Amino acid sequence: MFGGMLGAGNKDSQQPAAPAQPGGFGMGGQPSYQNPQAQMAAVEQEMDVISDFFERLKDSCNAKCIINKYPDGELTKGESVCLDRCVSKYFQVNKEATDVLTKLSQLQQR
């Protein structure tokens, strides 16, 4: 999810693992890590994308599901169910949009 910099495989392998494609939050494209600074910049960019995604998710679901009056310190059953469904739908829509954009990008590259 974070660019695959740690690699995978068995411990006996002397070959460094090739970097994986950046995660499923819309970054896309094949990374070309040429040096540690480029790797760090790619990781920082992906973290920014993930942070932005989480902030938008939080703001959207909070506005939709949490009432502005706080009679209790805990979420009500309705709020909890609403948040669960909201987060699930948000991830589903994001995945579907990412899939469509990836397919469009692949068609344009041909």
From TrEMBL:
In this chain the Tim10-like domain maps to: 39-96
State whether keyword Electron transport applies: no
Topology of the protein relative to the lipid bilayer = Peripheral membrane protein
Q: Which BP terms does GO give this entry?
A: protein insertion into mitochondrial inner membrane; protein transport
What are the subcellular locations of this protein? Mitochondrion inner membrane
Region (Disordered) residue ranges read: 1-40
Which GO molecular function entries does the Swiss-Prot or TrEMBL record give?
Answer: metal ion binding
Please provide, in alphabetical order, the Gene Ontology terms of the cellular component aspect for this entry. Answer: mitochondrial inner membrane
Source domain of life is Eukaryota
Major location (coarse): mitochondrion
Per UniProt, the keywords (alphabetical) are: Chaperone, Disulfide bond, Membrane, Metal-binding, Mitochondrion, Mitochondrion inner membrane, Protein transport, Translocation, Transport, Zinc
Q: How are the domains described in the entry? A: The twin CX3C motif contains 4 conserved Cys residues that form 2 disulfide bonds in the mitochondrial intermembrane space.
Q: What does this protein do?
A: Mitochondrial intermembrane chaperone that participates in the import and insertion of some multi-pass transmembrane proteins into the mitochondrial inner membrane. Also required for the transfer of beta-barrel precursors from the TOM complex to the sorting and assembly machinery (SAM complex) of the outer membrane. Acts as a chaperone-like protein that protects the hydrophobic precursors from aggregation and guide them through the mitochondrial intermembrane space.
Q: Which family does it belong to?
A: Belongs to the small Tim family.
Q: How does it assemble?
A: Heterohexamer.
Its name, as the record gives it, is: Mitochondrial import inner membrane translocase subunit
Origin organism is: Smittium megazygosporum
